[in-house]
Amino acid sequence: MRAWGIGNYPFPNDDEGTYLAQAWAVRHGELAHYTYWYDHPPFGWIQLAAVSWLPSWLLPDLPTFVQGRIAMLPVAGATCVLAYVVGRRIGLVRPAAAAAVLLYALSPLAVLLQRQIYLDNFAVLWVLAAFAFALSPRRHLWHHVAAGTAFALAVLSKETVAVLLPVLLVTLWQGSHPRTRKFSFAGFGSGFVLTGLFYPLYALLKGELLPGAGHVSLLGTLKFQLGGREGSGSPFEAGTDAHRLFADWLTRDPYLLVGGAAAAVCALVVRRLRPVALAVLVLALVAMRPGGYLPQMYIVQVLPFLALTLAGLVQAGIARLPGRPRLRIAAALAAAAAAVAVAGPHWYEEDHSAVTADNNRVYRDASRWLRETPVGDRAKVRIVTDGVLWLDAVDAGYRPGTGAIWHYKLDQDPAVTKTLPHGWKDIDYVVSTPALRGEREHLPTLRDLFAHASPVATFGEGGGRIDILRIENEPATQIESTPATQIQNNQ
């Protein structure tokens, strides 16, 4: 389900290109393809660097975001295995644990978001590993140390999962023996703190822990992340970004979201299900807080816990039925049939679209243009792209950073602006994508580029099209009214 049509759907998100470019930088000895400003801990794209080199080597002709998505397949597979392990360790019988994995793996939201190159996918893998170690039936001290280490690696992959720390402590309390519990907590704390300290220690050694003039800083960026960026509004208020995001999630999969959330409230009274139920409720409360920033991929963190809670509560209900085992087997089959009848048609429609739709031809065409169209000496040509196509431009021979320029850095990074003494006049081409056009009103240099650009090729039509724009000395006119039919390039 993940691999079928992975390069065709969904439409690329600029974050995917950013993380993939940062993974490329790791393979070349840096933490980011531009100045690393502590926007996220780097362990997520360090892992991406470790898994993405093979698809890029085996399939060099594919657009780089497709190569990156293929690299996410083993991450999705390992996450499903760990979801099964956690299910078994909270007391699910094998069929129930397998059902939880199916609920998780076939959910349209998981099919959509686990294909994409998101740090949350790495974080969820490590969170599930931490839960599996904390619930280890052997109750070995080193398992609890490993739980702390795994959770630290989850936070270093995507810092937002740190809100699950209280839940994991409750899990460790349930999974440890009363006589050795204090050693279990000490071991967990040691693994978590000693692993997590690598990040602030790196910033300290670079002189970038505290804010100051002339450099980025870990604490300065953290302050911005917590209070400086614009919030998404309340999910209960129509018209806000959070409300639209919740509506989109519920449109794609109302059954697992509503069913799993309801199950989490009921499962709090079942001791063995309490860890996964608390995880659902904590993550849901964080998502529903008014005024906070809520990204599209946040729901990735909740999905496995929703599936485990729902499957666990159904099993608990069936176990309470009186009578012979045959009655319970019949009840389990009836529950499975009811799930298929209720959610099956909607899931089939959503998943069928995911594996058959082709939304990304424009990106494949633009990537081919970058690689094949002669524009002179690419090492000297300057081209502005969005995050998704930046690495394609680099692979095509454009100079990283100051030749192939990520549009977001035009006015944001002094290392780039100092190489453009004449501003927009120093740029030769712009690859105009939906993400790039959406930012032009906020970036003065990008706005000037659009005012002095003429299209040489167009791929697709409407708002999802991609235009190749050549920068002219004279102002361009009516760029937005350029016909949306494809303009053939010289080839």
UniProtKB/TrEMBL annotation:
Task: Name the Enzyme Commission number(s) assigned to this protein.
Answer: 2.4.-.-
Q: Where in the cell is it found?
A: Cell membrane
- Name it: ArnT family glycosyltransferase
| Alphabetized PANTHER family for the sequence | MANNOSYLTRANSFERASE YKCB-RELATED (PTHR33908), MEMBRANE PROTEIN (PTHR33908:SF11)
Primary location recorded for the protein, binned into one broad class: membrane
Has the keyword Membrane been applied to this entry? yes
Q: Has UniProt tagged this entry with the keyword Aminoacyl-tRNA synthetase?
A: no
InterPro entries tied to this protein: LipidA_mod_glycosyltrf_83, RgtA/B/C-like
Keywords in UniProt for this one?
Cell membrane, Glycosyltransferase, Membrane, Transferase, Transmembrane, Transmembrane helix
Enumerate the spans annotated as Glycosyltransferase RgtA/B/C/D-like domain. 77-183
Which lineage do the record's taxonomy fields give for this organism? Answer: Bacteria, Bacillati, Actinomycetota, Actinomycetes, Kitasatosporales
Q: How does it sit in the membrane?
A: Multi-pass membrane protein
TM annotation in the entry: 42-59, 66-86, 92-111, 118-135, 141-173, 185-205, 254-270, 275-292, 298-318
For this protein, the record's Pfam families field holds: PMT_2
Q: Which organism is it from?
A: Streptomyces yaanensis
The GO terms describing molecular function are:
glycosyltransferase activity
